[in-house]
Structure formats: structure tokens, C-alpha cells
Fold:
Amino acid sequence: MNYYFTKKTNFYGNSTPRELVEKYGSPLYVYNESILRQRCQEMVSFVSYPNFTVNYSCKANTNLELLRIIHEEGLHADAISPGEVHVLLKAGYKSNEIFYISNNISKEEMLYVIKQGILISVDSLSQLKQFGEINPGGRVAVRLNPGIGVGHHKKVITAGEDTKFGINLEYIPQVKDIAKEYNLNIVGVNQHLGSLFMDGDIFIEGAKLLLSAAKEFSNLEFIDIGGGFGIPYHKQDNEPRLELKEFGKKLSKVLEKWAESYGKKVEFKIEPGRYIVAECAVVLGTVHAKKQNNQTIYIGTDIGFNVLARPMLYGSHHDIEVYKNIPDNNSSSLEKVTVVGNICESGDIIAQDRLLPKIEVGDILGVMDAGAYGYSMSSNYNNRLRPAEVLVKCDGSHVLIRRRETLDDLLRNFIL
Ligand code: LLP
Structure:
């Protein structure tokens, strides 16, 4: 049961987790190409509406090789920073395949994006003005806040009452005034309710709100109804997947009906990040210590919150698989443990009070579903090195797709 996910998916291909760690070091991000491709295909075929684009929200993971695979599967991308644009272009995405969803950006940044020929979405009246000043007569999109939000934690709810994002619907008249003043062509509206929903109905409700607001604009080429598609992080407890079939059918109907009444062929976009990449990665780490402090048994590993920040930041759950160094005859024995990293903060906890197969020093742990907001939120805190990334290809072989940082990388930006 403990290896349920990686066994079922043949996650490590022709290798074992231990062989990968021996070759590439620990901790290590391991990605599985087949799972990545499968998730892309599920999103691309999500709705039957013909003019439909999936923009991969690359903040979830910008590994160049993964970006290339995602592009090969027919996805476009959204970006939020010049750095993301830079990497997307390098990975082969064309300017017209990138949508820049900006938030509070400088004139210089706006100009950079415009010069790349990339369409920008702005999310405040003042940024729309700024856009008009530097690019009068230009094409632009606006991000609206439909008034409802979703998310696994209040920090990632990006619409509704309590968020910095989007333009509230009551300001649409002012949006139009500014557009008129600068002769701007509003070609798209977008929204993002937030990150991680497991029930499609809320997404459809949000889409309907955006669609009804979109009628206010007469020249739309596209409507982007956002991302946030959730994945089951509790697989070991049989958490069901997000149901896509009925959800997609229902949504298609809503989109088709709207497009008919708008009287113009519009494109619909979605922008999933997590759904595409979360499940295709495991972080492998090594157990270096075990001790009991009062009531708690601590398993000390090299997977600190510099490597995977989500548990520390949001209290997020990630399933853990245990790969024994010395096979345990009594393999059914479980122990309640708290799995921690090697960073000098007590909050450096990957899993608290988790019932796991008995763990000893030398064992390897796999932290599941780490592909989204894993490496992309890793850091050099405590001057630790970011790990290497390895891809297990469809044929079961593996290849390094980002080298581990070196100590010299830590000195790169100093004036020596
Ligand atoms: N579009 C916009 C405008 C976004 O801000 C985001 C995510 C997405 C799309 C993609 O959302 P997704 O499909 O991945 O849920 N670090 C957090 C998640 C932050 C999401 C930020 N925005 C986490 O680890 O859960």
C-alpha cells in the first residue's frame, strides 16, 4: 500500500529510487514523462468546444525540458514575469502562444512584454492607464474579479472579497472609459478564482459570472476562465480525482451557448498549473537521523523547506513512500512520526504525526505530488543547494534535466 502510487504508475521506470539517489545525489526531484503527457492530454481534451486553448501556468514549474514536453502536447502558456517569458521563449513557445497575466508591474516591464509581441492582461484601472500611456491604440486584456474565489488556503484564493487581484465588476464602466481615452482594443477578459478546487461546479459558477460580465465588451477575441484544477494529494487515503468528464461536458454547453449569443467566434482558454505537473514528480530524500523528543519521534531528512516549501507555507499534505535500505521482514509495522528537514527552524516539517512504515536511518523517502510549486518555490535558505532534477522517460530510462547547484553557484552574484 505504501508504494501504491509509484508501483501502479511504474514511476521510476527501469531504476529504483535508491539507484537514482546513488547516481544523482540526494535530495532529488524525479519526474515521470508519461504522467506529464497524460495530464496534458486530459486538459487538452477537457471540453469539446472547438476553439479552446490550454495555457499552462508555468509558475508551477519552469524546468525547460518539462516546458518543451508540455508544448509538444499542444499547450500554450501563461507567464507572470519577464523571467518566465525568457524561459518559455527558450523552450520554443512563440510570442503569440504566451499570455502575460500581470500584477502591479513597472512601465519598463510592460514595455519589455509588449516589445516581445506578447499580449498583456492588466488587473487594475491604474495599470490599464499605464498601458494606454505607453502603448496607445494597443491590444490588451483585463483581469476581472467575478466576486467569488476558491483555493486550498486563504493565501491562494485570488478572486472574491479579500484579494489584491482583478478589477471588480462595478469598475467596468471606468475600464471602458480608459480604453476609449487611449483608443485601446480590449480583446480578452480573464479571471482566476484561485488554486485548487476539486468540484467543477464552483468553476462553472465562476465562468458564468465572467461570461455575463464579458458581454459588456463588444470586441472580444478570447475569454480565459482561469486555472485551479485540483489534484488528489491524499492518494494513500483513496481521495478521488477531480471528475473531468461530466464537468467538461457541462462547461462545454455553457461556453457554446454563450458564444452563440455573443454572435462572434471567440476562443476560450483555461490556465491550469498544478494539474499539469503536480503528479509527475516525487522528491526523494535520505533519512539521516531518528530521535524521540518527548512524545514525538522525529525522522530527520535532507528535504527541508528550502527543497519543498508547501507543507511549511500552507500546511499542505504530501503522501510519503518509504524505501527501506534493509528490507524489513516485519514490513507491516507502522509508527507515528514527524518527518522534518535540515533547516534551522522548528517549522521545517514535511509531515506531522504521520503513520508510516517504520523508518530507520539510511532509508529513502519519496514525497509525492511535488511537481507543482515544488522546485519553483525552492530556495537557497541556509545556503543550501537546490537539488538536481531527473526525468524518467516513457521508455523507462532516465536523464538529468537540471544539475544540482554547486557551492560556487552561491557566490555567483557577489563582487569578488
Ligand atoms: N492563473 C493565475 C493567474 C494564477 O495566479 C495561478 C496560480 C494559476 C493560473 C495556476 O493555478 P493552478 O492551476 O496551479 O492552481 N504556491 C501555491 C499555489 C499558488 C498559485 C498561484 N497562482 C501552492 O503551492 O499551492
Notes: The chain has two domains: 4-30+279-411, 46-272. The CA atoms of residues 132 and 182 lie 5 Å apart. The chain is about 25% helix and 25% strand.
